[in-house]
Model the fold of this input.
Amino acid sequence: MRMNRLKIIREQAGFTQEEVAAAHKVTAQTIQRFEKGTRNISLSWLEKLAKFYKVRVSALIDEIDAQDIKAMEADVDEALLREILTYAQARCAGHDVDPAVLAKVVCKTYKKCRKTSDKQKNAEIKEKVDDMLTCVVD
Done:
């Protein structure tokens, strides 16, 4: 079984499960379940942990391929990424969406939209996220 990225990143950051749990006011068992994959983790939790570990959300996900990570790390437009994350999270509200699927959608959308002009960004983001999430949320 492949070790979960959440655990790897936590260990690289030098934290125990207990320290992460205390900082986020949850039990160590919650962090353990996230790491083992026995509890689904929301995008908001991925964002909290990424901020805590000082890494990008994409670093916490196993299923994102190397090309997606490179696209996320090269010349990151933080505003565009935030807009895509916010829209994707809102689009998935009320649905049980695997965070790895959502992260992959966000990465691919970011990759496709980063060269779009400002006027087209909002519509382009919605269209790309909707297209990629259709089979997951509809």
About this structure: The chain has a mean pLDDT of 75. Residues 5-137 form one domain. Residues 24 and 48 are 9 Å apart (CA to CA).
